[in-house]
Amino acid sequence: MEYVLRPLLMVSKLFCGSTQEADWANRYGVTCNLDLTHITALSLQANNLNGTLPDVFNALSRLAVVNISSNPLLAGLLPASLLSSSALITLDLSNNALSGTIPSVLPSNSRLSVLSLSNNPLSGLLPANIGLSLRTL
Question: What pTM was estimated for this model as a whole?
Answer without folding.
Answer: 0.83
